[in-house]
Write a structure and sequence with these properties.
Elements lengths: L2 H11 L2 H10 L10 H11 L3 H9 L3 H10 L7 H10 L3 H14 L3 H8 L5 H17 L7 H14 L5 H17 L4 H11 L16 H10 L13
Helix pairs in contact: 3-5, 4-5, 5-7, 6-7, 7-8, 7-9, 8-9, 9-11, 10-12, 11-12, 11-13
């Protein structure tokens, strides 16, 4: 499929009801309101098409931007392209899933996550923490820098409650990822969760809630899923 065909398909699959839901979560025009399940159908047709992905993201259409992350080839990204994507990802579905996902699978994952978490821009900082979470979920534990994880957890304990809204959410998510995907860090993550306590995040006019890290991590262990790495962050 080419760019025009994809945009036409997105328009056909969009709905006002989905638009209303996405609007409450932070999406803004232009977009058609396409369900992720319908985007996955298009993904199967397109498979991987990196050049098309770049075109779709440049459209500024939220549906197209999300699809772009699903069909991109992370290994082909240049660093400046990922930075551009992060700067343009104005709401969390794009910044914390699309951008963070492709960045985690690129060769710049650890480097950009480290840079982004120090940004004054909420969407970029949250993308940085989300990228770290994706990296923890993908990277074999023997390849993960233990000292880095300890430093990041310490940073979260010190700064989470004074951080920006979505940054608080993704910091909390990082604690969960560490506890869930690195069994050796389970107790450390649980102690961090206890230290920060309840994390308050404004979720807009939605029913979404911030997951409590301790019970979330414990539930993963009770289901026997602890330490099971993801095959991909592209979703």
């Amino acid at each position: 499929m080419n760019y025009s065909e994809v945009m036409s398909a997105l328009q056909q699959k969009g709905s006002e009801q989905t638009k209303k839901i996405f609007t409450r979560h932070g999406a803004r025009e232009p977009y058609y309101g396409v369900k992720v399940s319908d985007l996955k159908i298009l993904q199967k047709k397109i498979k991987t098409d990196h050049n098309l992905a770049l075109q779709l993201f440049d459209s500024g259409n939220s549906d197209a931007m999300y699809l772009a992350g699903m069909i991109a080839d992370p290994k082909l990204f240049k660093k400046n392209e990922l930075i551009n994507w992060a700067e343009r990802a104005y709401w969390y579905m794009i910044s914390e899933f699309t951008v963070a996902g492709v960045t985690a699978e690129s060769r710049f994952g650890w480097e950009l996550a480290s840079e982004w978490i120090n940004s004054d821009k909420e969407n970029i900082a949250s993308a940085g923490w989300a990228t770290y979470s994706w990296l923890v979920s993908l990277t074999p534990n023997h390849e993960i820098d233990v000292k880095l994880i300890e430093t990041l957890l310490l940073t979260i304990k010190e700064k989470i409650h004074s951080s920006q809204n979505r940054v608080r959410y993704t910091m909390n998510g990082f604690i969960i990822s560490v506890g869930a995907y690195i069994p050796d860090f389970k107790e450390t993550a649980l102690k961090a969760a206890d230290t920060i306590g309840k994390v308050k995040v404004f979720m807009g006019e939605t029913s979404c809630k911030v997951p409590d890290a301790r019970p979330y991590i414990e539930n993963i262990y009770s289901m026997g899923r602890a330490g099971k790495k993801r095959k991909s962050a592209l979703c």
